[in-house]
Amino acid sequence: MSRSYIEALADDIRRRVPSELVPDAPEALFLIYAALGLAKGERVDGRDVHNAWAAWMATRDPSHDSIKPYDELTDEVRDEDGPFVRAIRDAMRADHGP
User: Fold this and answer.
1) What is the pLDDT of residues 2-13, one digit of tens each?
2) Domain that holds residue 23
3) How far, in Å, CA of 70 to CA of 68, rounded?
4) Largest CA distance in the chain
5) Is the pTM of this model over 0.85?
6) Angle formed by the axes of helices 27-40 and 82-91, nearest 10°
């Protein structure tokens, strides 16, 4: 079975993230990141990635400490979004842009 355009983009983004940062069962998360990339392109930022992650995490562990507004996160927690922001931007630059 062939992959859809959004699955292909999700796979591309995932390949660009260091493997040690990829969570267990990440398929839905990377599909959300793919939709985010298609919506915002290279303008995606840490706030966007955090909100996408929070939506995903709310279905997995709704009591997770980091499910809170971006402005309430510590700088250390915000920095954790950086590799995902870069992966989405790089994937959109590569061949998935508008």
Assistant:
1) 789 999 999 999
2) 5-96
3) 6
4) 43
5) yes
6) 60
